């Protein structure tokens, strides 16, 4: 795509001018398309003077941290540091059941870990006499810009949203936002021409607080493991059925209630997995996705048979509004 290719060249040129010959840049990545495309552009512009940071918050999806690391570092050649803070996050989430409290804990801990990692990188760079960290990369898109200057979408007032890098005002760094004039479909097109895998380019959005807001009630390592496995089966079958791109967002949630079941000739008393899948243009309103029954049947039986601790699967048939896309 000609326009997109020239956009990349112009943006690289602009970034080089803004950053200059010695300054360093940091930015958080999540494995989502926005932060990856932004990081790619930055990396092409200034190479290893850009330092990407991935925070492992313990509530990413199954094997996600390793997958993101492999893709960004090894396939895309981005200078990446992984900050493994899963114990810190899970420790702070212990005993917390209120959705807003979970969101605040994760948001604040994220900033803390990101800043600490930034400081470490800064110390090293300065010691090596390679200049200073002066800029923060953010993958803000045009709709985010509009939302923050003119109005708050309904979900923003209902849930405290936190985004990768979205709350880092106190870092005294100048912000660079290569995607601030683009819509999501344009970012995907950019990603594709820069050689990012289709799998990543078409990835469903994933909330900053991760699966912590998809585990109702307390978030423990055991609960994280259950929902991760169920979600992995769900997404795998959606992809196999060729439905992934038709659905705007799909995930499994874990309901911390128990119901009675039977396995072989034994009574079981286990938790419930709720499957969510929606179609939407803007994520402000959404319709639940009309799955073919045979696909639901397959997914349900795989989850119940393969995920210990689950004996019942339900499908969420609520539209937004009045329900929201996430359960918390
Ligand atoms: P709701 O649940 O409000 O979600 O209907 C709308 C969209 O926003 C995502 N979401 C978040 N994204 N940080 C994010 O970056 C958050 O804290 C957050 N909470 C919800 C949600 O996954 C859906 O795509």
TrEMBL record:
Catalysis: reaction(s): XMP + L-glutamine + ATP + H2O = GMP + L-glutamate + AMP + diphosphate + 2 H(+)
Function description:
Catalyzes the conversion of xanthine monophosphate (XMP) to GMP in the presence of glutamine and ATP through an adenyl-XMP intermediate.
Tell me the residue numbers annotated for binding ATP: 30-36
Q: Which GO terms describe its molecular function?
A: ATP binding; GMP synthase activity
Write out the transmembrane intervals.
none
Stretches assigned to coiled coil:
none
Write out the entry's keywords from A to Z.
ATP-binding, Glutamine amidotransferase, GMP biosynthesis, Ligase, Nucleotide-binding, Purine biosynthesis
**Name used for this protein in its record:** GMP synthase [glutamine-hydrolyzing]
EC code(s) of this entry: 6.3.5.2
The record places domain GMPS ATP-PPase at 2-203
Q: Looking at its record, which EC class is this enzyme? A: ligase
Q: Which pathway does this chain act in?
A: Purine metabolism; GMP biosynthesis; GMP from XMP (L-Gln route): step 1/1
Q: Which GO terms describe its cellular component?
A: cytosol
């Amino acid at each position: 795509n000609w326009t997109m290719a020239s956009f990349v060249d112009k943006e690289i040129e602009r970034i080089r001018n803004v950053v200059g010959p010695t300054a360093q840049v940091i930015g958080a990545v999540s494995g989502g398309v926005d932060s990856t495309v932004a990081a790619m552009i930055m990396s092409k512009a200034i190479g290893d003077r850009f330092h990407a940071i991935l925070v492992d918050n313990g509530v990413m999806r199954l094997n996600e941290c390793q997958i993101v690391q492999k893709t960004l570092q090894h396939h895309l050649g981005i200078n990446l540091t992984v900050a493994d803070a899963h114990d810190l996050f899970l420790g702070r989430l212990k005993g917390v059941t209120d959705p807003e409290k979970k969101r605040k804990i994760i948001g604040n801990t994220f900033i803390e870990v990101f800043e600490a990692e930034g400081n470490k990188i800064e110390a090293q760079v300065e010691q090596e006499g390679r200049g200073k960290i002066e800029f923060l990369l953010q993958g803000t898109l045009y709709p985010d810009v509009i939302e923050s200057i003119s109005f708050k979408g309904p979900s923003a007032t209902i849930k405290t949203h936190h985004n990768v890098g979205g709350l880092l005002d106190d870092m005294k760094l100048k912000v660079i936002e290569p995607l601030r004039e683009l819509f999501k479909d344009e970012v995907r097109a950019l990603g594709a021409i820069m050689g990012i895998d289709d799998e990543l380019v078409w990835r469903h959005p994933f909330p900053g607080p991760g699966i912590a807001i998809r585990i109702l009630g307390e978030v423990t390592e055991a609960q994280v493991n259950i929902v991760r496995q169920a979600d992995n089966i769900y997404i795998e079958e959606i992809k196999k059925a060729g439905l992934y791109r038709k659905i705007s967002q799909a995930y499994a949630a874990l309901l911390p209630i128990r119901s009675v079941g039977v396995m072989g000739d034994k009574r079981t008393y286990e938790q419930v997995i709720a499957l969510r899948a929606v179609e939407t243009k803007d994520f402000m309103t959404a319709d639940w996705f009309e799955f073919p029954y045979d696909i639901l049947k397959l997914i349900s039986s795989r989850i119940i048979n393969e995920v210990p601790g689950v004996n019942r699967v339900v499908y969420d048939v609520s539209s937004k509004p009045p329900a929201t896309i996430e359960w918390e």
